[in-house]
């Protein structure tokens, strides 16, 4: 656990905001850029006078990428560091665990910066990145119309890839396309397993390969995809491909790959230019990618949004009291690097923008399509989940938890998706 360079005050003289960033594990490559972006936002908040008359202090902890380390890290930020709210986590299973075991039980606002397949419904959870209707639906329709309608899907064997691929197949079928294959591999699958999967991809007749592997596993698959010559046979289009990932791939492997997300460094907005200028001034940054090592992805941009959203909500609430803060978070509007981001009070998921971009040989991205800002919509896979009660409508009193009798017995809005009776992974007695 560390106090970041935007901090520096004693805990009694600051308002602490906890950041769960992956500094180790499967997606550990993203930890530093997430912390840098959040620290820049914290500096901006403090330059504007802080929050409630006090400086905002960012306290970060390594979530280790997985739930077994993410939950203790989150508890430490709340119970020992006294953080007023949490920002995190990158991987879906860690996010679900922290939402359920920490935010819900400790009654702490939990702001999230990473795109996911959907399914979390909690009055404490606020999502500031893309759901499938804002990202996957747009990406699949674009790829089907320009690159071909036969697509092969593959990913790690856990909920984010499965939920994302479910949404992608539905989107493809809606536009008249054809899923021609679907494979799931365990985390850190060996080269033999990756090659066996790519043999299926080659033989499938696919026009487009759509991989949903996490972090280092995605890099391993993309390297082998290029080495096997599959780039000459089909396109690769991804929701998880960014400037940082491109920086870790050889030139031949990254050139021509497509990514779709809420942010790329090449997004041309005044707010993004300001953010990148601040990034270039950070200690240890020798220039902006692809000329230097200064990198930013949708995860970092999302963390930047979360810091500003928390500050805005606390100022509007005039208090850090939980119910007032939750009510204010439902109505935040953040002018971010991607554009304007608007929280939806009913779902606790934001309206965000999305971009389709292609990676060049130098590792930079050229924006090919701007899909605009779209309201969130929970995917069909999770539609049986109850929406969180807006804090402004809850009773008794704004933000109060409804009595137990008013919570649906079929799928509690305060329970993670794996406990819902309708969920295919739920063990039934």
UniProtKB/TrEMBL annotation:
Keyword Manganese set for record: no
Alphabetized InterPro entries for the sequence: Leu-bd (IPR028081), Leu_Ile_Val-bd (IPR000709), Peripla_BP_I (IPR028082)
Pfam families in UniProt: Peripla_BP_6 (PF13458)
Keywords in alphabetical order: Amino-acid transport, Signal, Transport
Name of this protein: Aliphatic amidase expression-regulating protein
Residues spanning the signal sequence: none
Family: Belongs to the leucine-binding protein family.
PANTHER family, per database record: ALIPHATIC AMIDASE EXPRESSION-REGULATING PROTEIN, PTHR47628
Naturally occurring in which organism (per UniProt): Chromobacterium violaceum
One GO term (biological process): amino acid transport
Family matches, as CDD domains: PBP1_AmiC-like (cd06331)
Leucine-binding protein domain segment(s): 14-363
């Amino acid at each position: 656990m560390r106090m970041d360079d935007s901090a520096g005050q004693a805990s009694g003289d600051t308002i602490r905001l906890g950041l769960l960033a992956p500094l180790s594990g499967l997606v550990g490559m993203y930890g530093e850029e997430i912390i840098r972006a959040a620290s820049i936002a914290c500096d901006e908040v403090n330059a504007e006078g802080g929050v409630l008359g006090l400086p905002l202090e960012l306290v970060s902890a390594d979530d280790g990428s997985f739930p077994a380390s993410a939950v203790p890290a989150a508890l430490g930020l709340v119970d020992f560091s006294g953080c007023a709210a949490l920002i995190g986590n990158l991987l879906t299973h860690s996010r679900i665990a922290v939402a359920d075991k920490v935010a819900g039980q400790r009654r702490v606002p939990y702001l999230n910066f990473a795109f996911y397949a959907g399914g979390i419904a909690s009055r404490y959870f606020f999502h500031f990145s893309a759901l499938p209707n804002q990202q996957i639906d747009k990406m699949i329709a674009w790829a089907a119309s320009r690159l071909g309608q036969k697509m092969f899907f593959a990913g790690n064997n856990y909920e984010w890839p499965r939920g994302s691929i479910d949404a992608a197949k539905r989107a493809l079928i809606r536009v008249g396309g054809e899923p021609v294959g679907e494979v799931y591999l365990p985390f850190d699958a060996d080269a033999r397993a990756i090659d066996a999967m790519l043999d299926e991809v080659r033989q499938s007749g696919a026009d487009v390969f759509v991989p949903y592997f996490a972090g280092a596993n995605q890099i391993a698959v993309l390297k082998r995809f290029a080495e096997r010559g599959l780039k000459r046979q089909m396109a690769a289009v991804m929701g998880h491909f960014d400037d940082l990932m491109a920086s870790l791939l050889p030139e031949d492997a990254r050139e021509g790959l497509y990514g779709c997300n809420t942010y790329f460094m090449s997004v041309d907005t005044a707010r993004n230019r300001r953010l990148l200028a601040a990034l270039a001034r950070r200690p240890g940054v020798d220039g902006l990618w692809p000329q230097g090592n200064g990198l930013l992805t949708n995860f970092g941009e999302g963390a930047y949004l979360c810091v500003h959203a928390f500050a805005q909500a606390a100022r509007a609430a005039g208090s850090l009291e939980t119910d007032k803060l939750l009510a204010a978070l439902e109505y935040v509007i953040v002018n971010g690097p991607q554009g304007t981001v608007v929280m939806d009070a009913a779902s606790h998921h934001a309206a965000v923008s999305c971009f389709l971009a292609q990676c060049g040989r130098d590792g930079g991205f050229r924006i090919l399509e701007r899909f605009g800002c779209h309201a969130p919509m929970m995917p069909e896979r999770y539609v049986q989940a109850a929406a969180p009660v807006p804090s402004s409508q809850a009773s008794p009193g704004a933000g109060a938890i409804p009595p137990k009798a008013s919570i649906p017995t079929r799928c509690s809005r305060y329970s993670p998706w794996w406990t819902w009776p309708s969920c295919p992974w739920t063990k039934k007695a």
